[in-house]
Amino acid sequence: MSMILKGKTAIVTGASRGIGEAIARSFAEEGANVVICGRKQETLDAVAAKIPGGSVLPVACHVGRAADIQNLIATATAKFGQVDILVNNAATNIAQEPVLQIDEIKFDKMVEVNLKSAFRLMQAVAPGMCERGWGSIINIASISGLRPQYHGMLYSMTKAALIMMTQSYALELGPKGVRVNAICPGLIQTQLSEYYWKDEEKLANQMRTQPVQHLGQPEEIAGLAVLLASDRGSYITGQAIVADGGRTLASL
Fold first, then answer.
1. Rounded Cα–Cα distance for residues 170 and 126 (Å)
2. What is the pTM of this model?
3. Which of 79, 85, 197, 223 has its CA 20 to 30 A from that of 203?
4. Catalytic-role residue among 150, 155, 195, 196
5. By the 8 A CB rule, do 212 and 188 touch?
6. Burial of 238 by CB count in 10 Å (0-12 exposed, 13-18 middle, 19+ buried)?
7. Is 155 a catalytic residue?
8. pLDDT higher than threshold 70 for residue 42
């Protein structure tokens, strides 16, 4: 490994599995101190134990709760001094249903977890990044934020808003040395997306129209996150970078 993140401290939310776990592992391999969060401490402890080195700090945190986020930031800074990299990966999708069946409880929950958590975390860590003149924020959005997901309006809506938040922060924080980007994965083999890939027939239908004909893996998103987190991505900000195997390349 090139250790391109040596000396940097990163927070990765939703890191107990899937894309978040893969990003945390890749960051640690590149020399970063990594604070991982999720809802269950025992699950985080197990993830931390699997990542080589002693630079991973597991902190239980429900990102939908402001007090938990405050504790996460305080714990991270007490341990490592500052936060240089933030990955807003935690998300939920509790409303896989027609738009006319969605209720306000689900609407509020999706906004709270998928969108407001990212806002709270960026508001908490970005000022310090601006003061130091260096920082990288990566928001994990989705191709569903670029095109509507059928029976997934709330997921698409929150991811679309996350992309616009990304661009707005990038516009204002760029002159202060802070880059803000979004990654828009296509179908990745995670627990969150198993509705789309566990059914073999449904998966086969998706792969037929996708130029790269394999199911995306979390590690394929993690590599992109390392680029955006490091100085190798120093000229990239305000972007919603699609990593979907070419799925959104619709042909007529």
1. 11
2. 0.95
3. 223
4. 155
5. no
6. middle
7. yes
8. yes
